[in-house]
Design goal:
10-stranded mixed β-sheet, binds 1,4-dihydronicotinamide adenine dinucleotide, 336 residues, 41% helix, 2 domains, two-stranded antiparallel ribbon, Isopropylmalate Dehydrogenase, alpha/beta, 11 helices
């Protein structure tokens, strides 16, 4: 079956890594008809908007997008593409799988966890006021609708992927009402799913300490917006950084898959960027589409390339001398 999806190359290294991902996905046997669309600084220069209406409309139509990093031009008038996409498409769950990669040396082994972050409210609601000069407030919003929705998502994710444990990080000892509501909704979902999924609550400071002491003991982490943002980068650091973790933003209607790193203007256009993170995001996209065999083929291929550690097949940031294209071609050879 041929699927249709949006490909948003983005800015900086985006077009190079997106092209590498497109070729690798094509070589995996999955059939995707791409509609290539603009977003970011290049789109702003051409269309006067970092997120042109045709791009948003195409994602709503195809319901799936693979997105490269974008640069948000500094200065008034441009809102972040990522924030706009989350709001306009109601992409309420950010999902970031974090796994120890073969051949990528870090302090930890056997990390295999998934960070699930509420993407729409909390302190990121952006409601800030200056009460009197020198006194500002920032409101943390928690709604039962959003807390229930993300808790349901996390338990459903755990259940369908046969994961064993959900851990909620919170600060309900201090933020008794907002984090209290988050916990209340997580507990209700724990009760609904029963004993097959173990459930644990950790005050976030203790949770951070446990994560850096023994990350392998964690499975699914469920967090509100700010905690999820911070903890997901911390978790990426446990397995080798932003270059080796994929990301996705998922709603009931649409899903946007993207590498977590930025547009890296310092190395753009030189064929040296590592395309692994967007390729891994492409694997998540294939799984989402039900193309699990193609997804497994790509995953096996990059595991092999990383394990073999041939300098002519690895990009510079992970110890090799290969270019973006050569890295992608090494993956494609492993799939033949
Ligand atoms: P960055 O992630 O673009 O770069 C940080 C460092 O990591 C740089 O030295 C860069 O060369 C390196 N790097 C990043 N990705 C790499 C890759 N795939 N292969 C090899 N090296 C890589 O972060 P920075 O410099 O803070 O942001 C640059 C621009 O990207 C900004 O305009 C920022 O707003 C945007 N950005 C966009 C994101 C998105 O669209 N999802 C996320 C983060 C930043």
């Amino acid at each position: 079956m041929t699927h249709t999806a949006c490909l948003i190359p983005g800015d900086g290294i985006g077009p190079e890594v997106a092209e590498a991902a497109r070729r690798v996905i094509e070589a995996s046997g999955a059939s995707i008809a791409w509609e290539v669309l603009p977003a970011g600084a290049a789109a702003a220069a051409q269309y006067g908007d970092v997120l042109p209406a045709e791009t948003l409309e195409a994602i709503q139509r195809h319901k799936i997008a693979l997105k490269g990093p974008v640069t948000t031009p500094i200065g008034k008038g441009f809102k972040s593409v990522n924030v706009q996409l989350r709001k306009k498409l109601n992409l309420y769950a950010a999902v970031r799988p974090v796994r120890s990669m073969p051949g990528v040396k870090t302090r930890y082994e056997n990390v295999e966890l998934v960070v699930i972050r509420e993407n729409t409210e909390g302190l990121y609601s952006g409601i800030e006021n200056e009460i009197v000069p020198g006194v500002v407030t920032s409101l943390k919003v928690a709604t039962r609708t959003a807390c229930e929705r993300i808790a349901r998502f996390a338990f459903h994710y755990a259940h369908t992927r046969r994961r064993k444990r959900v851990a909620v990080f919170h600060k309900a000892n201090i933020m008794k009402m907002s984090d209290g509501l988050f916990l209340e909704c997580a507990r209700a979902m724990r009760d609904a799913y029963g004993p097959d999924i173990e459930y644990e609550e950790l005050i976030i400071d203790n949770g951070c300490m446990q994560l850096v002491r023994d990350p392998a003991r964690f499975d699914i982490l469920l967090l509100e917006n700010l905690y999820g943002d911070v903890i997901s980068d911390l978790c990426a650091g446990l397995v080798g950084g932003l270059g080796v973790v994929p990301g996705s933003n998922i709603g009931d209607d649409c899903a946007v898959f993207e590498a977590v790193h930025g547009s890296a203007p310092d190395i753009a256009g030189q064929n040296i960027a590592n395309p692994l993170a967007i390729i891994m995001s492409g694997v998540m996209m294939l799984n989402h589409l039900g193309e699990t065999d193609a997804a497994a083929r790509i995953r096996d291929a990059y595991d092999k390339v990383l394990r073999d550690r041939r300098p002519d097949e690895l990009t510079r940031d992970i110890g090799g001398v290969a270019g973006t294209r050569e890295f992608a071609e090494a993956l494609m050879r492993r799939m033949e």
